[in-house]
Design a protein that fits this description.
Length: about 250
């Protein structure tokens, strides 16, 4: 156990570690280092970009760190941007983080309109059925998507509009990577649509999802919610600027 924890600390500090380096640093055989790293990879604490490549921090390790330290910072830093998005769009702006195959809304700035998407702070939704969740998932490597969704079907969502097909999800995530934003049309809740982007750290890991949600009856078509994408993207850039240089 001590060697495994030490490995996690080394990978967190160095951001990349090969089996031979791990063995030398731990003072153990390469087979032992490989066994430890393989066990950590199965649990998502480390990952490899390619077979026999260096081991890097995995999403499980990242999520623990975010839960322990960064979540409070990102909520604090993002709050003024959520309020700005609400003013620009007159719709509800939200911040969410990934928790396994789910996302949790950690802050919202609720629309001032009488008909609106309500404040969802604390609400948990399937990641694959929400714009913020899909935006975050699109920032993960394919191997991590496979780890989170190993079966032939995705977890059930709350509406019939959400896909249950992992292949279809992977195709949509590829489109999100290309476009830079994710859409949700009544997949997480009836009558609700949303657009979202991922907030990424300096090495490209997704920190959280930033999105705008609105009643689909008012927006009318997916193109209507897609029109908010540039505003949300600018908001994400502002959050990242604030995270790098917090006041």
């Amino acid at each position: 156990m001590d060697n495994a924890l030490w490995l996690l600390q080394l990978i967190g500090e160095r951001q990349a570690l090969r089996v031979a380096e791990a063995a030398d640093l731990l003072g153990v055989a390469r087979s032992t280092a490989h066994r430890l790293l393989t066990a950590l990879r199965r649990r998502g604490f480390v990952m490899q970009d390619r077979p026999n490549g260096a081991y890097r921090p995995g999403p499980a390790l990242y999520e623990i760190g975010l839960a322990a330290v960064s979540r409070i910072d990102i909520v604090r830093v993002a709050r003024p941007v959520l309020e700005q998005l609400r003013e620009e769009t007159q719709e509800t702006a939200s911040l969410a983080i990934l928790e396994g195959p789910m996302i949790r809304f950690v802050d919202c700035a609720e629309s001032p309109r009488s008909v609106r998407v309500g404040n969802r702070t604390g609400v948990v939704r399937p990641a694959h059925a929400s714009a913020v969740g899909k935006a975050i998932l699109a920032g993960l490597p394919d191997a991590e998507i496979e780890r989170r969704y190993p079966g032939d079907e995705l977890p059930p969502a709350t509406t019939s509009a959400a896909t249950t097909d992992p292949a279809r999800l992977r195709a949509e995530l590829a489109e999100i990577r290309a476009s830079g934003f994710a859409l949700n049309w009544e997949e997480s809740a009836d009558g609700v649509c949303a657009v979202a982007v991922a907030l990424r750290d300096t090495i490209g890991q997704p920190l959280a999802g930033l999105g705008v949600a609105a009643p689909s009856s008012r927006i009318g078509t997916p193109d209507g919610i897609r029109a908010f994408a540039p505003v949300v993207q600018r908001g994400a850039e502002l959050v990242l600027e604030r995270l790098r240089s917090p006041s």
